[in-house]
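Morning, I've got a small favour to ask if you have a moment. I owe you a coffee for this, so here goes:
>
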Amino acid sequence: MFLLHCLGAVVRTAREPLHASPFSGGLEPQEHPVSRFHVRWYPVTMIFLAFDMEMLFMYPWTKVVPGIGTPAVVEMFLFLGILLAGVGYAWREGAFRWT
């Protein structure tokens, strides 16, 4: 055990401390990493999550369609219609406007 510790001390390389620069190139950050996002990004995030949940339900649906048939297709189009109505409502209310 002692010999392994000594061998490790001899073979070890001196490492430089990590710097606060981006890994593998890129530009230096202009603001602190935990700075707050502008409030206009929150509706975009909610809309993204809605469509992300849509995809969560569509993946298992693809496995069910061959077994169930037409009712599964109608049910999915009904689900997509409800989501499309939600997007239309958000659009009408101005959720997609940046000003």
In short: Helices lie at 2-11, 41-68, 70-93. The chain is about 65% helix and 0% strand.
